[in-house]
Amino acid sequence: MDGTEEKVNLRLTRRPWFIAAMLLPATLVLAVVLWRQFGPGLPQITPDDLAQARARWQANPVSDYDLTVVLNGRQTGELKVEVRNGEPVSMTRDGTPMKQERTWRPWTVPGMFETIETDFENAARPAEKFGSADVQVVIRAKFDESHGFPVRYLHQIYGRLDDLTWRVTEFAPRERAAGLLVPKSGE
Question: Are 141 and 116 in contact (CB under 8 A)?
């Protein structure tokens, strides 16, 4: 074998690695684009879907519950909220008590509905709310079948890295028995 043949063989053995090294980033970029376009398995919702979920909540209201929510996107963390008589009484973020009570209400079930409703209102006025009429806002959610609260939520603003997702990892209704709160039976 002369030097020319060795160079050709060396190039041929390196080619699969080169192709793989080029395809991997392209595949990752494609996966991110597809995930952003089609969401993480959540259906895109309308204001009517939100109204139906809110009606389910109002038909089966729970006034005492504990809620754990995991946030991802522009905000991250784990929130734990205690609601009694329909009002938030405490909240922690990543185990740290949140002292400003005004931050508690958005993470109650009615507060989550209000947040989604505000997101729909903002999406209808992108020039006013986002500084450009070309901004596309996509709202996706999954609601609990029996109570209607948002189990998962995704708010995407195309053209910006400004996504917000939340996932309810625990919804624990409580009932009053002789003045004490206890886990609700069957939940």
Answer: yes
**Count of domains for the chain:** 2
Q: Is 107 contained in some domain?
A: yes
Distance between CA 128 and CA 124 in Å, rounded? 9
- Label residue 165 left, alpha or beta by phi (over 0 means left) and psi (-120 to 50 means alpha): beta
Burial tier of 165 (Cβ tally within 10 Å: 0-12, 13-18, 19+): buried
pTM of the model: 0.74
- Residue 168 resides in a domain: yes
Beta pairing class for 65-73 and 77-84 = antiparallel
29-66 per-position pLDDT tens digit: 655 544 554 445 899 999 999 999 999 999 998 999 99
Radius of gyration of the chain (CA): 24
C-alpha pair distances (Å), 82 with each of 67, 68, 136? 6, 9, 35
Q: Which domain holds residue 121?
A: 47-181
Pairing state between β 164-177 and 180-183: antiparallel
